[in-house]
Amino acid sequence: MTKARLEVRQAETGDIRKIAALARRVYEDFAPYTQSEIRGQLNNYPEGCFVAFLDDRLIGYCASMRIGGDKALRPHSWDEITGNGYGSRHDPNGDWLYGYEMCVDPKVRGTRIGRRLYEERRKLAEREELKGIVFGGRMPNLKKSWRRVEGPQDYLDQVIAGKIHDPVLRFQLANGFEPLGVLENYLPEDKRSRGNAVHMVWRNPFVDQEAGPKGRVPRDVESVRVASCQLQARAVQDFDEFIRHVQYFVDVAADYESDFILFPELFTLMLLSAEDTELSPLESIERLSEYTPRIRKALSEMALKFNINIIGGSHPTRMDDGDIHNVAMVCLRDGSVHEQEKIHPTPNEAYWWNIRGGDSVDVIQTDCGPVGVLICYDSEFPELARRLVDEGARIIFVPFCTDSRQGYMRVRYCAQARAIENQCYVVMSGNVGNLPNVANMDIQYAQSCILTPCDFPFARDGIAAEASENVETLTISDVNLSDLAWARAEGTVRNLADRRFDLYRIEWEQKGSGGEPGDLTGPPPMHQHGPGGG
């Protein structure tokens, strides 16, 4: 017995790099998908994404989502219907399956891979008892036939009549799809189709097309327990003593069967108290960066030992190019270690510590679903949280370090706004206390908390749990991820679904140039002490 050469299955996050490579091979005439967009497609509706492998090589991919007929059957653009390619407008109540991506490696065309992927979509629509499948089909021969036709509708009519050959439309018509008309300006980047598409539909013969919506999103329970450590700054004799303090809270959170524990931004600064003399800001950062391998190893071992996902606040880390970045180490209980760099250094971080900003923000896949990390000041930039949620994040962790109530409130108010506008949970963790001989740890102010959207399933004031101000403690709460699905589909307001993609969008560069630390020759920030968080 030999192994099957062809495999068609639901796409997995481990396929993302291969899908991106396939898209680059297929779409030579316009920009292919980024890994961020593909990650969002898979996280937002994994059941609708399929891949085809031939001899262990990925050769086909399709992405779909559920959506209501009021959106799917009326004129729209590709950006508008897909949420700029992330599939973020998926509606679990939607009674139509919308196919927004289908690509097959040009080298294997003729092996009916496309037909097999279409069949997977059809099976899904029948299994979910949806009314049918809708998509915008390309018209790749329209450009070269432009002088022979009176417009895209005439082109479509001539293809149907057999007067013009279009392999894509011919394939779709042969697979039982019927045209509803032409979607003008559907995808401007598609030059061969002159930006147009054919509005295609397949109606499921096994459901009543006149029936109303089947029902509401079930109020299921998908409980995740999160813990926020409000950590006291204290003098330590050495690295081992510091790690014992951290492990104490990891142990307690694990005893409460928490899935995550979050530590504050720059929680490793207390390691500087072990130095014989007080160091300058630049000397301090250089010294701290030397601890990076030991901290990564210790947190990773704790995550495995205590079976808990550790969001390691943040730690100054020297990168391969020699720059210092402020980095959150995310150590998962499966032994993997991920990192999220702070994108926006505060003026104090840039001036006194020469910290530079990172280039990307992406979700991290965990056993409790995708999560995101925004380090302190980053929570004050709404586009970062929106990108994480488009990629599928339902929990965003915000480690922070603030020296005053004003700084804390900036982070707190913005974190609450991120929870509301993205209909997600936000977990905050900050430092308290002081270390007089450690630069930027003179005083600390924090009131760590676990924030929710503001709607009926959630806490009255949008606060699932909250620590007392300026005391060392562990704050723990259960959050129900299924409540987010309900709120996004049926909530009093539906911020994600109601975005006007026809009016505005956020575009991300594939790679930034690295956040500059600011003009270090100019005047210093108003306050020398404290990282200036928030």
Please render the helix and strand layout as text.
Layout: E1 6-10, H1 16-26, H2 35-44, E2 50-54, E3 57-67, H3 69-72, H4 78-82, E4 96-104, H5 113-127, E5 132-137, H6 152-160, H7 167-174, E6 178-183, E7 197-203, E8 223-233, H8 239-255, E9 260-262, H9 281-289, H10 292-306, E10 309-318, E11 324-331, E12 337-341, H11 347-353, E13 355-356, E14 364-366, E15 369-373, H12 382-390, E16 395-400, H13 405-422, E17 425-433, E18 449-451, E19 463-466, E20 473-480, H14 481-490
Parallel strand pairs: 4-5, 8-9, 8-17, 9-10, 11-13, 15-16, 16-17
Antiparallel strand pairs: 1-2, 2-3, 3-4, 5-7, 6-7, 8-20, 10-11, 11-12, 14-15, 17-18, 18-19
Question: What labels describe this entry?
Answer:
alpha/beta, 20 strands, 28% helix, 534 residues
